[in-house]
Amino acid sequence: MTVPETMNALILKGHGLSGSRSGAAIDTLEPYLDYGKLPVPRPGPGEVLVKVRMASVNPSDLYFIKGEYGQPRVKGAAAGFEGVGQVIAGNGLYAAYLKGKRVAFVGGAAGSGAWAEYIVVSAATCVVIRPAMRDEDAAGHVVNPVTAWTMFDIVEKSGSKSFIFTAANSQLGKLIAGLARDKNCAMIAIIRNESQAAHLEELGAKHVLVQSDPEFGAKLAALCKTDKPRILLDAVANQVAADIFTAMPARARWIIYGKLDTEEPSLREPGQFIFMDKKIEGYWLAQWFKRASIIEKLRTLRAVQNRFISGKWRTEVVATIPLSEALVKLPAALRTGDGKVMLTP
Amino acid sequence: MTVPETMNALILKGHGLSGSRSGAAIDTLEPYLDYGKLPVPRPGPGEVLVKVRMASVNPSDLYFIKGEYGQPRVKGAAAGFEGVGQVIAGNGLYAAYLKGKRVAFVGGAAGSGAWAEYIVVSAATCVVIRPAMRDEDAAGHVVNPVTAWTMFDIVEKSGSKSFIFTAANSQLGKLIAGLARDKNCAMIAIIRNESQAAHLEELGAKHVLVQSDPEFGAKLAALCKTDKPRILLDAVANQVAADIFTAMPARARWIIYGKLDTEEPSLREPGQFIFMDKKIEGYWLAQWFKRASIIEKLRTLRAVQNRFISGKWRTEVVATIPLSEALVKLPAALRTGDGKVMLTP
Fold first, then answer.
1. How does pLDDT run across A142-167, given as a tens digit for each residue?
2. Which among A13, B125, B235, B329 could bridge B258 via Cys, Cβ 3.0 to 4.6 Å?
3. CATH hierarchy code of domain B6-140+315-344
4. Taking the CB of residue A35, how many other CB atoms lie within 10 A of it?
């Protein structure tokens, strides 16, 4: 396959961190991205060049292009962290093994992004995708599914037979609902509005609480009594989350993995840290990848693929948008909020 | 020794928890305590009767009598958690061994208090005091010194070569300053006003920061860079503490062991839990006693006594007040804030 000199890409307009905190919501991409031409990147030692087949749009991508993610932007580089594609070229033994294979990858922060026709990524981070797996499942194969899997592992290891999950109509929420049901663990799903309630129950959530319900507080208090959830997996980190944490029983852990809301939460009962042994901590997939052993990583990635291939997990795609139309169509597609948006070159 | 039928005591007027949150400050004792007569309590199985020689006044006592501590009050019972006295009678083998000995004790919550001429406590929780130890050191022998010792142990085990300590002019702050210096660990002591700054440095604090200093924020930021403190031991749990935690480097742990301020702290940067692996947790001595092995407890108590006997620790007493005068004199003595107040029958 001949590789051209240039490629189309969605290109970052901003540099570094913006210092602002406007959250994951995005009305227009114009301030952050250009659609244009870039040189096709060249793989360095241990790297491969991947021809992108499909890239996913995660909340972390949106934070990143706005300069509000934990990692600084590189102006003029392609955006996008995650996708699936075919390995075209590369350097090193493992790269040679990967050549021609369909792989899932996570890259992006260092300068080569997934929202482009080609991306350069570290060969070691590529995951070979078995033929039975759809591109739609493979393109969002690492960030959300591995997060769901490893966060549910925290619940299991804690010994708690139930957990609370905020912003549960996210893809992550839907993925973890099935895991919870299969392992006989009661998921208490918190959502903002009712539209996804029945669907979440169908996917495996045992209880679904709607924040706008006037009985929300009373229902939550009752479930804290009967089900004794000791883990709160939270993508919002706002006052509602803080108050849920306060309502939870002794030894509860508030595990923050996202900051969808810009509100600063207040701790109403700091005495609970002392007398009820409560804790607040964070979860970041990048940290998990850093700390987990190779065996643990391989086992997790295999389990995640198997779950998709068996049909137990299925990525719900609401829109597949060509890169060339993303500036116009992506914001509206994201606003539906009920499934994943994919980009294709 | 003949034991009388009745005794003098400071008696709780309130019952259970008050639901209020006014903090440790106390202007007058009248709403909370009566000075009067109670029957001398009788030891049950495994318990001893102790003739109190001296009782200490800790912040936890003040929270407790106001109904703001983690444990409910018993109306009509004597107040006071901690003291030193002589074992007069008891039930069981260990009680027989203790008879006649001078012991330090912690009791109080269940109905028999230390602010009285006699107290009944579990024999197992009594600590035999060696003759070389002063009553002033023995009376406050468990709550503060063991807390200081075990909290400093958290710092040591964390591997951090420095830590931040709020409300550092407390007895706890003074005790931990010496431990820090001896173990070559940099204590960054935070105090509200300058009066105790030189004394804290003399006791072992490497840096003393005064909150009213206009340069407070800049100095703290500089120390966070040079000394990289990863542990915040905090008795205040207010916005200043939350902002100190935000200024601390990655992997910082905010360990709350008291709630001196009634303000609700806001978490300004919840993203730090995710990207910087920060944590909030609590510390409660009662929990430590529950979890530590007997060996660990004995080793700790022996180490604490040795430190007092060797003169490395010395309880700074600002007032010793007879029970009969406590209602009048205790609030004023507490307001000096620069040392311990003791009560004697």
1. 889 999 999 999 999 999 999 999 99
2. B235
3. 3.90.180.10
4. 16
